[in-house]
Predict the structure.
Amino acid sequence: MSTVAAELKKTPLNAAHRALNAKMVDFGGWDMPVQYPAGILAEHEAVRTKAGLFDVSHMGEIRVKGPGALALVEHLTPNAVSKLVIGQVHYTAFLYENGTFVDDLLVYREGEQEFLLVVNAGNSDKDFAWVQQHAKGYDCTVVNESPATGQIALQGPLSVSILQPLTKTALEPIGYYFFTHGEVAGIPCLISRTGYTGEDGFELYCAAGDAERLWNAVMAAGKPHGLLPAGLGCRNTLRLECKMALYGHEIDDTIHALEAGLAWIVKLDKGDFIGREALLAAKAAPAPRKLVGFKTLERRDIARDHMPVVQDGKPIGFVTSAAPSPTCGINLGLAYVPTERAKIGGRIQIEIRGRAVDAEIIPTPFYKRQK
Amino acid sequence: MFPADLKYTKDHEWLKPQGDGTALVGITHYAQDALGDVVFVDLPEAGDAFETGEEFGTVESVKTVSELNMPSASEIIEVNAGLVDHPEAVNEDPYGKGWMVKVRLKGDLAAGLLDAAAYEALVSAESH
């Protein structure tokens, strides 16, 4: 097994995770912490009630810069890039011509003619090739900054209290989905008020060589507040409770943006973009399936990712993500079901290890923080 | 981590003979550590009988589920009711409060069971 581990990619924080006795797993080719000794439940609760610190250095960063940058990013993504002011960020996607997903991503507007695109680790190479392939004819440079970039995410209600003593940048005025540049613990960072947990928090981007110093500084500052290092295990349960999509689960190259419930990132009236024709057609026709949230009715019935949704023993849909919810205390999940079965309060059946169990369709997100 | 008075399976269950033809069964420290936080243990009922290696229940953690396989052919005489409200006992005390079922053994102990040293060697090979 050690030979396999040697082939995995490592973030600049790999040694820090091992020093913290993290349990490491292969996550899309990356050697990443799934949990630390506190465990997924404790880490999940820390993020909901205090704060957790995640290594997200495996994410990919692509910088697009030049007079043609805005037009290229508009062409590549369905959200309205021209509406972003400098210092603002939004959630969007790369779509294929048929409206299905190459990936989902964040677009940061660094300048009038400069954008930072932050993509999923496992899709990073595919995404960079995708952007390069479409950049021909646009007057801009496309640079893959992933190997040179470290990223950590401080998430939870105490994030401002923990981070503010480490920086002269006033954090409170940074709005949700806005960012700025500043020093944290003396390290130059992009400070972004974003995250993948449904809590307040910051994603900090820095030079890869500074990542461990930044991590240690934030860990030390957070310790008196109950900050815990947090792994991919709780990252998944946290994002699931908030119905945030995960590539390979709620979205992939067989699911289009409207059925994924992501119409809000698709601005069909903004002008041309890749996938627009297909989504216009999809919008005009009744959607055959829909992403819904469900809970199973018995405590022993815990649905898991990719289990079939069945009717009279035949598959009519599938679970995208499911888990026992630490915050809500129920077994919940997301599933694609035929639209006529997608009503709140309706019943579906999920096949768990050969047994069809009852589940109720319930409103999403399952969890929403009190502001 | 590897109590000497237990017998072990390659699937990371343990069996503790009580000396009167009965035994306690649970999962090992290594198994609970690999599962992470246990949130539910689905167990059979007293009177149910299982062959060696047969699935007798499941243990669910936040991130995954694992089958429980009977270490040696036996009949269930008691299940650990305390796990209903405190499944975390499996993590905190896998060889004590985290026991899962008490069984009456049918015939001799299964031949494939490992002693503590052999099980420790197996775990050591799996984690390196």
Chain B has one domain: 7-119. Strands of chain B lie at 7-8, 13-17, 22-27, 38-42, 49-50, 55-61, 65-69, 74-79, 101-105. Chain B has a mean pLDDT of 96. The first strand of chain B starts at residue 7 and ends at 8.
